[in-house]
Amino acid sequence: MQVYEAPLRDMKFVLNELHADDGFGNLEALAEFTPDLTDAILEEAAKVAQEVLLPLNRSGDIEGCTLENGVVRTPKGFKDAYDLFREGGWCALASDPEWGGQGLPEAVNKLTEEMICSSNLSFSLYPGLTHGATTAIEGYATDELKQAYLPKMVSGEWSGTMCLTEPHCGTDLGMLRTKAVPQDADDLGGSFKISGAKIFISAGDHDLTDNIVHLVLARLPDAPPGVKGISLFLVPKYLPKDDGTPGPSNGVSVAAIEHKMGLKASATCQLNFDESIGWLVGKPNKGMEAMFTMMNTERVSVGIQGLGVGEVAYQSAVWYAKDRVQGRSLSGVKNPSGPADPIIVHPDVRRMLMTMRAYNEGSRAVGAWVARALDAEKHSTDPEVKKRAEDFIALMTPVVKALFTDLGYESANLAVQVYGGHGFIAESGVEQFVRDGRIAMIYEGTNGIQALDLVGRKMGAHMGRYLRSFFHPVAAFIEEHKGDEDFGKMVEGFEKAFGALQLSTGTIAQKGMKDPEEAAAAATDYLRLIGLVAMGYTFAKAAVIARARLAEGSEEVTFYRSKITTARFFFDRLLPQATAAFLAIKSGKASMMAMDAEAF
Amino acid sequence: MQVYEAPLRDMKFVLNELHADDGFGNLEALAEFTPDLTDAILEEAAKVAQEVLLPLNRSGDIEGCTLENGVVRTPKGFKDAYDLFREGGWCALASDPEWGGQGLPEAVNKLTEEMICSSNLSFSLYPGLTHGATTAIEGYATDELKQAYLPKMVSGEWSGTMCLTEPHCGTDLGMLRTKAVPQDADDLGGSFKISGAKIFISAGDHDLTDNIVHLVLARLPDAPPGVKGISLFLVPKYLPKDDGTPGPSNGVSVAAIEHKMGLKASATCQLNFDESIGWLVGKPNKGMEAMFTMMNTERVSVGIQGLGVGEVAYQSAVWYAKDRVQGRSLSGVKNPSGPADPIIVHPDVRRMLMTMRAYNEGSRAVGAWVARALDAEKHSTDPEVKKRAEDFIALMTPVVKALFTDLGYESANLAVQVYGGHGFIAESGVEQFVRDGRIAMIYEGTNGIQALDLVGRKMGAHMGRYLRSFFHPVAAFIEEHKGDEDFGKMVEGFEKAFGALQLSTGTIAQKGMKDPEEAAAAATDYLRLIGLVAMGYTFAKAAVIARARLAEGSEEVTFYRSKITTARFFFDRLLPQATAAFLAIKSGKASMMAMDAEAF
Questions:
Q1: Residue of A426, A435, A520 lying closest to B347 (CB–CB)
Q2: Domain A159-285 in CATH 3.40.630.10
Q3: Taking CB atoms and an 8 Å limit, are B584 and A576 in contact across chains?
Q4: A-chain residues near B413 (CB < 8 A)
Q5: What distance, in Å, lies between the first and last C-alpha atoms of chain A?
Q6: Closest of B74, B295, B115 to residue B203, by C-alpha
Q7: Which helix (H) or strand (E) is B397 found in, with range?
Q8: From the candidate CATH numbers 3.30.450.40, 3.90.226.10, 1.10.540.10, 1.20.120.790, the one assigned to the domain spanning B8-136
């Protein structure tokens, strides 16, 4: 059964308690968003997620999207849900008030994103992609384009897409072939005719909005080859009339909708652009820059998708583990009136549930930390804080994307395992989490690409400055809590993992300088290692805070005790992966690269 | 694309070279199966897999099975393929010649099973379940039943099932409710009327054979509660007439076919037995014993399913990694005439391919070792060898089942990752491997149950005698090859992992004696640890053999060199997981079990 109640208590913990002293400071510009207000927003978002979106998750999977006579239809109920979502102001939540948004802090917004992803991952893509597209338009488009498109996109009246991939190129966008020809050859500020074929376009077409605004990567006639010759264009499905309402079709057609493993209620389209009229967003041949602005925002959001899937998988598994009776507890009968004990008594079931729980809490805590940096980057008035926030975001974006989606997928698989045979049956609802969650490890740059970004671009940047934004607070924490009376052993284990991370950083930096393949060979393990250390940091910090709350006599004994237990579990059972990653990194590229391609 | 060529060279390696000195000796009874003959059999099996079964794999997934008016239909082509399979004698391969089988050594048979599972996992279940059922009938049924059913089942004319699970019980069969009432109350040797509902019955109904022979767990009227009151019955779909051909219907009806995540061409049925006539197999109330005979055979076969999926996933990924061009090699352009290099040049893609390769070769090598033990158990004339083989099989059965299916699933997921976005699209064929492979971690006892079997029943049995059947050859190998000039470092790492396994064994045995939950909390990590050590042993041994062949001037330079490289990769990159497992085991059950169920 798909079970979901927004984990509001933990969300409020990461929002109001865990990162209070994170060094990003209090942001004046966000002062109006008091805990009272943000709590209320989270509670309202939870209602939408639980009452509107969750009930459509399985039916949407079963029905899927359809393409008939060139028109894409979303599953039953999606249009009504989208209208309600839009009218409730949820599309505009995090956008700039200048364009009609509510300017919600990212620290809150990412939590609402998590709820939407938990309750209905397919649905989340429709507003999610729009938000990504508005980021690029805000950052790079002309004022005219902003005025014409942003208010309608921010409100959710129109939606957006990112059209990057072509059949022969995804990761390597330098090869893309879609063409943009100036309508008037002398006027690059004017409009262009865009022609080409794009694939894998999420929300590429659907029946939720009156218009769809495509951001399309294409080449100008005189563009240099490779990624340096790519420009970004805004191409509406319908050209706006003078009054701003959608007018004539713009030559954008749906060639097909993809048949996918999951995420079936999200329309993933093959689009053809046939002399579609578009306008430059950003400078000619600088499309990758604008695209990366959008992409980086999206990467953090895709990480949150992984967490969202992990959370609903966890809750669904907990529900089953309490409901299903099978076998007896090894430490004495727990349910004497029943024919057997609920399976939550069994250690191996506990192992799975605690693993999921720890991955979710750890991801939520790290995600909240990054979200605070996003707010500081935007709103801090202290240039040093701003810079540190930027550094931290640059470092953590690939980690959030890859780590959270890997762990969310692992949790989805564990949920299936907790259900046993029933988990493999569609009616249980949990195998859908596996099928839906699988894509998050791939899109917006595969997790392997994230790891390469981390070691190739982020690790060594500015002599390790990005890394310092992370290493400093971690080192300070260890210094402060070494030999702690309750958590000394935990901190000791954590210090070892941090040491392994520092050693690995040195090894990779050194070897990678001479041979970039050495760095690339270490990338995936390094990302896992830094991710585990980041989670370890938030868990150790959470345990210290929880202890203080309990000592103060908090009445939320269960919550804070569970926090400490989950932290202990993380250090006992999951942090040891860091040692494996360290050993793998140390071994270098030799055996990975030795075989000739023909020998495979 | 689903790409598969049976890995004949590696199969012949594990069959004829790797385990030649495994201590199970040469078996006189199998002397007729010379390498020439077994090679020929493997080559013929490869043709069937590649030419008959593989082409039906994706079409079978798309079409699935259907239930119309109580009749189950397999996908197009399955009936013809089954007829061809049966007529070719492939159903009878491993069965006893007494019943028309060919008595093929298990060491060969398991390799043909792997091919069938690689090419079409859904198909493999139809003959696979029959084989399991014949094992139980051979071991426990009366001569009359054997005569009436075995020849037809061995030939594949009739098929078999195992009917265990009921909606409310799977792992905990003690709760089952299906009833068996003697037709004549005084005659337990006679027939019974079986009534009850079973679910998840693989090959429960289909159109491939004229009759289906169900082995059904049920309770006699006076049966004691729990697992001690379960009996096994043979219940044909159609009651045989006097001439042995199928006669009247026997009250077995299909309530539904399950809607599953994958394995869609395998008909998984909900069956209702309504006063169906059945006969006891084995003694009253001793059904679990007969069922476990069948189950243990099946568990090894399910492990092979995992390997089969891993192999086809690997080959499909290799094909794509050579075909897909994207980006340039970090060590200089490799494909100057193309717009980019094939992605197999990238270290992170290599990491994925080598991981899959190592998991497959390691599983195949361990599986072949266990298969030799199966042959020795059956055919050795030396009571000591027989005993050691039995011990080794008892120990390794849960390891083969859980480890191979976990790793096969990981490989399927890695294949999707190698394909990137295309991997999520159904047309690529690789997401099917994930959906199909997922069930193997669950059925025939979840992998968690396998781990409990390992630590609860096998680890401590007879003062660790089962373990010694494995520890002795490993320790001897380490002793012999310590400080080896080429592989010294490899053996050193291996020795450490073996040491961790021995330590963990001691810890679990000690703690588990006082508190069985301690052993259960360590189970899954312990299974992974022993599995990695078993693979490590076969890899180290393989490397030594490969070196000798190369030194002898073998012309198969690529094969033997690749074997050494893959072994090195395993020790560099995969064996480190053993350290993580060791640390997790060491931490004990405390944090896993601390939380109240209500706190989840």
A1: A520
A2: no
A3: yes
A4: 409, 438
A5: 42
A6: B74
A7: helix B383-419
A8: 1.10.540.10
Chain B positions in Cβ-Cβ contact with residue A584 (cut-off 8 Å) = 572-573, 576
| Residue A326 to residue B592, Cβ atoms within 8 A | no
Helix H or strand E segment including A317: helix A287-323
A98 touches chain B (CB under 8 A): no
Taking a C-beta distance cutoff of 8 angstroms, is the pair A214, A252 a contact? yes
Please indicate if any CB of chain A lies within 8 Å of the CB of B588.
Answer: yes
* Residue type, position A141, single letter: A
Distance CA A272, CA A461 (A): 39
Instruction: Compute φ and ψ for B283, nearest 5 degrees.
Output: -85, 160
Determine how many CB atoms are found less than 10 A away from the CB of residue B449.
23
**Is B444 annotated as catalytic?**
yes
- At position A391, the amino acid (one-letter code) is D
On chain A, the residues whose CB falls within 8 A of the CB of B258 are: 425
- Our CA angle for A202, A206, A212, nearest 5°, is 75
C-beta of residue A110 within 8 angstroms of C-beta of residue A367: yes
Under an 8 A CB cutoff, do B592 and A583 touch?
no
Residue of B nearest to A569 (CA): B591
How many other CB atoms are found less than 10 A from the CB of residue B399? 27
Contacting residues for B106 by C-beta, under 8 A, at least 6 apart: B94, B371, B372, B374, B375, B378
Tokens of B271: 């069956």
ipTM over 0.90: yes
Restricting to B residues 325-364, those with a Cβ less than 8 Å away from any Cβ of A are 325-327, 330-331, 339-340, 342, 344-354, 357
Do the Cβ atoms of A575 and A493 come closer than 8 Å? yes
Report the CATH architecture of B159-286.
Beta Barrel (2.40)
Which helix (H) or strand (E) segment holds residue B271: the answer is: strand B268-281
Which tokens sit at A575?
């942090």
* Rounded Cα distance, B399 and B379, in Å: 23
Q: pTM for this one?
A: 0.97
Total residues found in chain A within this entry: 600
Tokens at residue B292, please?
């476990």
Residue B401 forms contact with A (CB below 8 Å) = no
Q: Measured between CB atoms, does B513 come within 8 Å of chain A?
A: no
Structure tokens at B406: 């976990």
Q: Measure the CA–CA gap between A52 and B167, rounded to whole angstroms.
A: 31
Helix (H, G, I), strand (E, B), or coil: what is residue B169? strand
Structure-token match 């299909």, residue found:
B254
Q: Are A129 and A209 a contacting pair, CB within 8 Å?
A: no
**Cβ(A309)–Cβ(A409) under 8 Å?**
yes
pLDDT of chain B along its 600 residues, tens only?
999 999 999 999 999 999 987 788 889 999 999 999 999 999 999 999 999 999 999 999 999 999 999 999 999 999 999 999 999 999 999 999 999 999 999 999 999 999 999 999 999 999 999 999 999 999 999 999 999 999 999 999 999 999 999 999 988 998 999 999 998 755 556 899 999 999 999 999 999 999 999 999 999 999 999 999 999 999 999 999 999 999 999 999 999 999 999 999 999 999 999 999 999 999 999 999 988 888 888 999 999 999 999 999 999 999 999 999 999 999 999 999 999 999 999 999 999 999 999 999 999 999 999 999 999 999 999 999 999 999 999 999 999 999 999 999 999 999 999 999 999 999 999 999 999 999 999 999 999 999 999 999 999 999 999 999 999 999 999 999 999 999 999 999 999 999 999 999 999 999 999 999 999 999 999 999 999 999 999 999 999 999 999 999 999 999 999 999 999 999 999 999 999 999 999 999 999 999 999 999
Rounded Cα distance, A343 and A322, in Å:
7
Q: Structural domain boundaries of chain B?
A: 8-136, 159-286, 460-591
